[in-house]
Amino acid sequence: MASILTGSSSCFSRRCTQAFTSIYCHISAPIAERHPSSTVNQRPSTRPFIPLKSQTATRPLSQSPFEQPSIYEAEFEKLRMRRIKSIRMHPDSTGKDILPGNYVIKVNERTGVERKVILEHEMGYFWALKELEKTNNKPILSNESIIPAAEAEKFPTLTGLNCLNDEVVDIPDFFNRDNQTKDATAQCTLVAISCKDFGAKLLPSWIDPFTSQLVNSSDGYKFQTVRITINEGRIAKLLSPLILSGTKKNIPTEDHERTLLYYGNAEEWRDILRMHNMYTGYVYLVDGIGRVRWAGSGGGDEEEVANMIRCAKELVAPVKKVVGVVNSMGPRVGRRVQ
Predict the structure, then answer these.
(1) Cross-referenced Pfam families, in alphabetical order (predicted)?
(2) Rounded to 5 degrees, what are φ and ψ at 90?
(3) pLDDT digits (tens, 9 = 90+) for 50-66
(4) The whole model's pTM is what?
(5) Which CATH fold would you assign to the domain 140-316?
(6) Could you read off the pLDDT of 275-318 as tens digits, one per residue?
(7) Does the pLDDT at position 262 exceed 90?
(8) What CA–CA distance (Å, rounded) separates 113 from 70?
(9) Adjacent-strand bridge partners of 115
């Protein structure tokens, strides 16, 4: 009886061993051998192999190597619509590809997979300095002519700015506080904005000609300049008394009432004005009802400054009314009907 049990046990053991061996061989076999018709391991013939070092790249949001809409289009569409669309970005600037929130889209060129990446993580912490070198300190190109009134957009709102005369104001209401008529042609304001000392040193190339040729002219009451310094970060808030006293020493007393300081996070506000690079200076012409009609950045050369002066004069020029135009639907405009 014992021998029978022993023989049966050994036979069962051999059968189990054979079964496990068969299963192992089946699992270990390549997929193509088990399923000859499978296309799992077939590489597309139209997609060449790309070395690992060049498998990823950044790109503008709406440009895909596979000509497909980005999965992030809907997420950023509303935020992008807030930006002032008439501002001209330099073709070599990094800012033209930056998404709201300081993100860029990174695409794997081999698979086409997109990832939203923080700007500094992808471009490095010195991307802004590299951009200034490529664009000659001008990430924004100055407009060649004034932005048409039909396309002009309101200057973004920023509240709680400290004036050097100890007044707290909001913009853009501060620009048009003296324009009681609410006429777009009644006033033109040059708004000069900086976040760092390097940018602040570039602004006089715009402010000084504007002041000498327009503010100090016979029609100077129609023109004004407003300087704004953005101080972001908690340290700047703690050092606000020192920053205030230092700014008062560097700004002429007659300009204190038109010099504003802001402490706090202004990232969304800067994004609307396309002020992605904080190291340069930015200038905007704002009309009498707070609309952006011209923009520029960096230091102004002779041609750009002359163009800015011309645009500022056009903004305050009275609108010519056409009298006596024939109306096809009735009598001439301006004549009394008998």
Answers:
(1) ATP-synt_10 (PF05176)
(2) -65, 135
(3) 444 434 445 555 444 43
(4) 0.74
(5) Glutaredoxin (3.40.30)
(6) 999 999 999 999 999 999 999 999 999 999 999 999 999 999 98
(7) yes
(8) 10
(9) 106
